[in-house]
Each structure stands twice: as C-alpha cells, then as structure tokens.
Amino acid sequence: MISGITACTTMVIPSLFPFMTLVNFFDFSGGTHFINKVFKYPAKLLMGRYYNFFSVYLMSLVGGYPVGANMLNSLVKNGTTDKNTAQTVLLFSVNSSPAFVIFAVGEGMLFSKKIGLVIFLANLLSSMITLFLVTRLSKNIPLYKNGETRYLPLNNAFVEGVTKASISMAFMCGFVLIFFALNEIFSFFPFGKLTAVISTVGEVTSSVSMLSTGGELSLISAVTSFGGVCVLLQIMAVSKEFSPKLWPLLLIQLLKGVLSYFITCVILKIFPEIGLWRYEEVISNMTSPGRFGISSTPITSACLILTAGVMLYNTIRIISNKENKTNEEFGIYK
C-alpha cells in the first residue's frame, strides 16, 4: 500500500494532474472547438469522416487514458454526437500521455527520459495505426452537430477544469492503490510468474513498476499502450451517457499493446544502445543526490501552487454558499 501511495504522490499526480487540468480548461472554454477549426484539413487526411473528433483524439494524447472518454461523454450529453459515434471514436481515443510515459515511466521508473520518449513514440505509432484502421473500416456514418455550444468564461473554465481534474486524479489514485495492494498480497503466495501476469493485465503503474526491475522495455511499451483492466474500468465509469461495449474496446487496446511491443522491438533491434541509456543516467544521477524520481521544474511547481489556490478559493465559495442558504432558511440576515 505504501508503494502505491508513493507512486501516486511522486509519479502519477505530478506527471498527469497539470495536463489533465489543461485539457479540461480547453474543453470548458471552447479551446477544443478552435483546435478542430485550425486543424480541419490535416484532420481530414488523418481521420477521414471522423475529422470533427480530432480535438478528442489530440486531448486524449495530451491528457492520458480517461480524457477521451470524458470528452465523448460530454458530447453525447449535450447532443453534439450520438452513442454509436462515441463508441467508435472511443476505440482510438484511449491513449497514454507523454507526461505519464516520459516522466512517470521513463524518468521515475526507468531513470531515463530518453527511454520514456522512445516508448511514447512506439505508443503513438500504434495509436495512429489503430486510428487509421478504425476510421477506414468503420461503416457507421459519424454524427457531429455544429450547434451553438455555450462555453464558460476563462476564470470559471479554469476552476471547473481544476475541480474535474482533482476528481479524476482521486479516482485514478484509488485504482492505483487497490491494484498495488493486490500485487503485494499476491507476492506472499508462491504464484511465480502468475503474479507478474496478473499485475500486467491489472493496473499500468504497478505493472510497469514490476517490469522495470527487469528492464523489459518492449513489454513496458506494450503495457503502457494497453493500459490495463484498471483503465478500462475507469473508462466504463466515466462513459455513462453512451455505455460503451467492453469487448471491442478490450480487443483494440490489446491490438495497440501488441503493435507497441513489436514497434519497440524493431527500434531496439536498430538501436540496441537504447537499452543502456537507463544505466548511463543512473550513474549520472548518483553524482547528484535526490535526482531520482520525477524532477521538479518551476512551471510544474507554479501550476501546483496555482491549482492549490484555486481549489482553496472554490472550497471557500462552496462553504460560503451553504452558509448563506442555511441563514436564509432560519431567517438570519447579515
């Protein structure tokens, strides 16, 4: 359990929270609509008939696994698209984020951001191959209504973005803690390699943590691309408006995992020195105590401080509103 808490506080939250806040801010403020307009023609070449969902795909790459499902759930709720279209778009909108793979996995677990970048490129290629296959093979006609959507003012969009990101992070960390605890329980039994298999299909952070000790970069690439059962459960939970079918999504995620595995194998075959990068950076870090884990930068620190301030302001506002309602009920006026 302690290892799960450490993973959340030192890797998962610092690497994902600022980017999830950014994605939510874009979504609430209308930035995603602007992205669709700017990249309309490149999106048509890449996604065919599904070009209107380019912002969903892009934000899923920036924010990570559950972001695409969250956005599609909102689009179905406000009538912009229908359930069948959302189901199809979801198949290529469950992706690992560069923040998680490069920083949490690469720097935090493999002690090399460069290796994290290689793994993310493999994940990105497998995602784009999947996108191309789904959009070209799908027989459904995508529905997208360009109606008048009301967006929030920038200050409200930021507050709502932080709030939604906070809820999502608490949700994700809960799953991380549960699967880390399960892995620790299984480790006490003589299951041998079965423990590693259970970990691999379970939760991505605990899986990579276990695989990183052996340096299996191709398997780590497959796991980060697949995401694990934990990610699928999160997606089903946040997609209540269109209730996606589990089996097509599971098969597509498995396909992405297999593609990432072979792409990484090819990269390592062409550039075998990549496997040695982690040892070079470990030796370099030994000369600078405290550099293990995700490094802190002024930008991420400023984001966290600003986020804390917004959360505090939002909490005070909620408490104040409740007090006002209570005073009105009892006839107390200030």
Describe the structure.
It is a single chain. By secondary structure, the chain is mainly alpha-helical. The protein contains 16 helices and no strands. It is globular, with a radius of gyration of 21 Å. It starts with a helix and ends in a 5-residue tail after the last helix. About 2% of the residues have low confidence. Helix 1 runs antiparallel to helix 7, helix 8 packs across helix 12 and helix 12 packs antiparallel against helix 14. The protein has 2 domains: 291 residues, no CATH class; 39 residues. The relative contact order is 0.14.
Features:
mainly alpha, 2 domains, 16 helices
- How much of the sequence lies in strands comes to under 5%
Distance between the termini: 48 Å
Mean pLDDT: 79
SS class: mainly alpha
The helix/strand order is HHHHHHHHHHHHHHHH
Portion of residues within helices: over 70%
What's the number of structural domains?
Answer: 2
Question: Rounded to an integer, what's the Rg over CA atoms?
Answer: 21 Å
Would you count the extended β strands for me? 0
- The stretches of 5 or more residues where confidence is low (pLDDT under 50) are 287-293
Please summarize the sheet with the most strands.
none
Q: Count of DSSP helices?
A: 16
Shape annotation: globular
